[in-house]
Amino acid sequence: MTVDFRDYFWGEKNNGFDVLYHNMKYGLVASKELAEFLRERSNIEENNWKLVSKLAKQASSSCTQGTFGPLWVLLRTTAEKLATLHLQMVQKVSDLVKEVTKYADELHRKHKTVKEEEGSTLEVVQAIQSTSITLQKARDAFTQKGIELDKLRKESASPREVEKAEQKLKKAQDEYKVLIEKYGAIKEEFEKKMSLACKRFQEVEELHLKQMKDFLTTYAELADCNHDSVGQVHIEFKRQCLEMTVEKLLEQFVLNKYTGLEKPVEFTGVVEVESVADVVSASDAGKVSAPGTTSSNNQSSIKREGFLRSRRDKRKEKKGKKKKDSAQDNTSNKEEKSDTEEKEEPAKSKTPTPEVDDEGYCVRPKVETWDVDKGSSFYSSSDSDSDDEREKKIRVEIKPLSNGSGPMSASVDELRATVENLSLSPIGNMPPRRTAATANTHMKRSQSVSQQIGGKAIGDMTRAVNTTQSPTGSSASTPTGNHPYAPLQSPTPPITSANNKYADLGDIFAEVGEIKPNPLQKRQSSTPTSISSSIIPRPPSRKSEGGVRSPVPSQDGMEFRASGILLGSSRGPSPLTIGMADTIPLAIAFHEMIHSFFKGTDENKCQVKLCGDMMISFPAGIVTILTNNPSPAQLSFRLQHASNLECVLPNKQLLNVSSEPSSASSWEDSVYEFDMSALTKLLRRQSEENPSASYFNVDILKYQIKPKTGAESCPLQLVTYWKCEKNHTDLRIDYKYNSHAMHLPSPLLNLNIVVPVEGTVTNIHTRPTAAWVPDSHRALWKFTELSHHSERNGVGSLRARFEVADGPGDPTTIAAQFNCEGTTLSGIDFVLVGSGYRVSLVKRRFISGKYVCDGRHAEGKSRYSTPLNPDC
């Protein structure tokens, strides 16, 4: 119903004009009061900005040096964002206040114009009001005179009195008639002007209310936008708090504050050097002596005395020599004698006394030819500093480039990176570090460089478990990708038992094949595409500690890097290498997959299949150890928490099982032993095919997990309800996060739910908002993560109405896709048996396979929807 002021502002007292005029004045008051209200809101936002800015300053002045430092930075950043939002709100509201104030001024001028233009109407209103009063009085007087005349006639008054009364009545009647005529003329003019005034006042009020409503709408939008922005800041803060785990905080602390990676060197004795002349004489002797090798298998048993000695004794010896005035020849003989006397008896039995020629130079003994042939051994590197060679004097030999017969196995980039990492420290007062020079003509100079670069293999194992799992038995890899689990995005095909226990699952698992041992002849090698710039150092390999496990968590872009210990004229920071006595670090990866088929609303009808595989990553340095060690330490392991496994298929080309399990409960009793010769051949072949690889991945075994009853094994439980009408199709998807399905509760990441819709969809309505892909006729919901920290503890519903042109359609099968990091569905673990190896990293994850839900109760043809690519 349309409101018209001309129908509501009349009345006996004719006060409509006064009411409308005062209402117009109240509009001006309302505009001024609204400006004052908004100004007060701006002051509130300004106070909030000041208080939150003060809070941000407090957070910035807090201690950021500890492990909690990144969280202080997060708090400060959040407070600064909130302060910025409040300041923006202040500015926007202040601009709105200016607009309202400007409008109030314009409205005041407009009211003055209306008052002036409606002046005549006001005069008519006043005239009709006065005329109405006068007319009423005349009417009352005329009535009174008539009553008096009737009274006199009834009382039979004298004719004179009756005549006077009649004259008065006639006079009152004439006055009354005049006023009636006057009122009629005024009334006609009043109605005309009042109608125009009502129309004008209504137009003014409509424009005023529209403008005021616009102001309020703008204010509401500002408040809503600010509220959403503040909520977004809080959501981002919560997300970053969840991402900033204890593990990540500790890693950032180590990255910023680490002081070194190598433990102090253990020194067991003293290597005595008479003077710099000994070094020079040894160097000269090396120049004139015949080529020979300084490392052999027999020298590994020599007792080392270290390369540090007491400087006090040396100073005393030098002072005693300066006081002597003997000839140069005698001095040389005494120095040689002194040097010989400094050796202990065990050393004499091991090292022959060098012969001295006529000029005082040492003549090196002849080297047997079979020693020369051993130049390619593990310790034949030109920069070798093995402990059993430190007892010898320093001999320097510069060989031409053509002497190095071995091919360069390191790439130019790796050599450049190695040279850039080398640094020269100042020459100290301690005796020079003794290094053994080898004159083997068959020595490969590139071997020392490759060992240095290969030292990074231990650090690179943090990304070994991230490499793409190929169907082959092993692969040689280097770090690739920046995403922490990007290489694992392509999962291995799921496994089934030999009896195909899940054959009754039908078409939904038809693509699942049988498990077969991976042949060793097929391998793949991946080439690094990019290396992450975020590098965190890790401790170097330690001595054997009785097989103690030391798992180290990993993040994206982490690698082990050893920093060298500068001692005197050391060669500077050298990459981490693996010695014969070091425990070899291993990285383990568990990768599992779950297939699920939800059918109807009965969870007992849910069909589930779970499978997984285990991979071990070996550092590149292990190839040299296994090659040169005739009896390497036996690598054995057993599975822990494996009672819920249904089937385990080891790689029989590499593993030997000590005892075949008689039941599923005895999987943990089986010990899996590596065939060390087969493992050595495999890793050596991988090293030859890809000499620049930092680590080698080997698929060890595959397993199948016993599902729980119904949908208890599903980390994401789904139920769908369809309603297909002629003009629209309604859908509701109920979902629930189930933390009991996994070993340790962890959020589901990158969750996508895809719904194909039959028919021509003209419009969609979804809650929460979903993306529509017209090419494939699918609706897509995307969630960053789903966990107990999500809304309603991870329980909710997805609703959608699809308006279709050619309905009704049929219910379809929806699909879900997600991944979960840091945990597994089975909960199994890897335990080493024996010594010589250690676990430096364990990576666990599982992903969804065919994860579908069908709302129809009966079996029928359904359209399976593969989850969309997140980029689409």
TrEMBL record:
Ranges of biased composition (kind: Basic and acidic residues): 365-374, 389-398
Domain of life (superkingdom): Eukaryota
Main location: membrane
Listed PROSITE patterns: F_BAR (PS51741), MHD (PS51072)
Coiled-coil regions listed in the entry: 135-189
Residue spans of biased composition, Basic residues class: 311-324
Compartment(s): Membrane, Clathrin-coated pit
Single Gene Ontology BP annotation: clathrin-dependent endocytosis
UniProt GO cellular component terms: clathrin-coated pit; clathrin-coated vesicle; plasma membrane
Biased composition (Low complexity): 467-481, 525-536
Segments of skewed composition (Polar residues): 291-301, 437-453
SMART domains: FCH
Topology in the lipid bilayer: Peripheral membrane protein
Entry keyword Phosphoprotein: yes
Annotated region (Disordered), positions in chain: 283-411, 423-453, 465-500, 516-557
PANTHER family the UniProt entry points to: AT02057P (PTHR23065:SF15), PROLINE-SERINE-THREONINE PHOSPHATASE INTERACTING PROTEIN 1 (PTHR23065)
Sequence similarity: Belongs to the FCHO family.
Name of this chain's protein: MHD domain-containing protein
Organism: Apolygus lucorum
